[in-house]
Design brief:
By secondary structure, the chain is mainly beta. Helix content is 5%, strand content 43%. The strands form five sheets. A five-stranded antiparallel β-sheet has the order 17-18-19-20-21, with no helix packed on it. The longest helix has 14 residues, at 2-15.
C-alpha cells in the first residue's frame, strides 16, 4: 500500500538527516501511465492511503500501481459534474469533496465510490474546500465568496457568509484559500487581499496592499502549519508568512529577488 511506502520513505530520510541530504530522484506519472491529463491541479492522500489527483480532465485515484478514473458522463447525474477538478478535501467521515471550475461541488462516498452532485453550488468555480473540525460541515471558497455547507441527516444546508470589505461593500471576490483558527476564519482572495472573519462577532478585518502592509492583493492559496503560522501563496510577490497577534500582524515576504529569501517585514495595525 502506498501509505506504507510513504512511511518507510520518511523513516529513511530521517535516518539520513545527520549525514546530509540524500540524493533525490523523481518518477513522473503522466497520461502515458493512465492520467487523463497531465496538469495536476489538486492532490490529497486519504485516510486509507490512496492518492487522489485532480486534473483538467478528470479525477484519478492512484494506489501506487494502478489508477481509477472519475469523469463526467453525459446523461449520468451519478458522475462528476465537471472534469476540471480544482479542489479536494476529505472530511472526518471519510467522504471526499471534489470541487470543479464551472461545475460546482461533488461528494464521493469512498466505500462504494458513489458520486453525488451538490445542486446548490452548480456552475460555481470551487477554489478551496476545508472540512470543519467540529461539525459535519465544510467551508467552500468559490469565485463568488465563502460558503458554509452543513450536513444534517440526509439534508444539505448551504449558507453564504456576508463578509464586508473595508469600503462597506459585500465581498464577492474569488476566495482561494481558507484557514480555520478557533473563532476566526482567515481567507485569501484574488483582488482584495487577506481577510479575517470572526464567527462570533460577524466582523471582518482586512489586510491589503500598501496601507495594510502587504505587497499584493492577489493570492492563490492559504494554509496553516503545525505551529499555527499562516502562509499565503502570492500571485506576484512570492510567499507570505503571517505572524503576530491581533494588533500587530506581521507579513514576511519571501521571493526569488530577496536576499536569503526574506524581502521585508511589515506591521499592520
Amino acid at each position: 500500500m502506498i501509505l506504507r511506502f510513504i512511511t518507510l520513505l520518511l523513516l529513511s530520510i530521517c535516518s539520513l538527516s545527520h549525514a546530509g541530504l540524500p540524493p533525490v530522484s523523481f518518477n513522473t506519472i503522466s497520461a502515458v501511465d493512465g492520467l487523463p491529463q497531465n496538469t495536476g491541479l489538486a492532490m490529497i492522500q486519504d485516510k486509507v492511503g490512496f492518492v487522489w489527483i485532480g486534473t483538467e480532465d478528470g479525477l484519478v485515484r492512484f494506489d501506487g500501481q494502478s489508477m481509477l478514473s472519475f469523469r463526467k458522463q453525459h446523461n449520468n447525474v451519478a458522475s462528476l459534474s465537471d472534469n476540471y477538478v480544482s479542489a479536494l478535501a476529505e472530511d472526518f467521515k471519510g467522504r471526499l469533496w471534489v470541487g470543479t471550475m464551472g461545475g460546482g461541488l461533488n461528494v464521493i462516498e469512498l466505500t462504494h465510490h458513489k458520486v453525488t452532485r451538490i445542486s446548490n453550488l452548480e456552475n460555481a468555480d470551487i477554489r478551496s474546500i476545508v472540512p470543519d473540525p467540529v461539525e459535519d460541515a465544510i467551508w467552500v471558497g468559490t469565485g463568488q465568496g465563502l460558503y458554509f455547507l452543513s450536513v444534517k441527516g440526509d439534508g444539505l444546508f448551504l449558507e453564504m457568509l456576508d463578509i464586508f470589505l473595508p469600503d462597506g461593500t459585500l465581498m464577492e471576490n474569488e476566495v482561494t484559500g481558507v484557514v480555520l483558527l478557533a473563532d476566526e476564519i482567515w481567507i485569501s482572495t484574488r483582488g482584495t487581499g487577506i481577510g479575517r472573519y470572526n464567527t462570533k462577532t460577524k466582523k471582518s478585518t482586512w489586510y491589503q496592499k500598501g496601507t495594510n502592509g502587504l505587497l499584493d492583493n492577489t493570492f492563490n492559496t492559504l494554509c496553516v502549519d503545525s505551529g499555527g503560522t499562516i502562509w499565503a501563496g502570492g500571485q506576484n510577490e512570492g510567499l507570505v508568512e503571517i505572524t503576530g497577534t491581533d494588533g500587530e500582524i506581521q507579513f514576511n515576504h519571501y521571493n526569488s529577488n530577496s536576499q536569503r529569501g526574506l524581502e521585508a517585514s511589515y506591521s499592520a495595525v
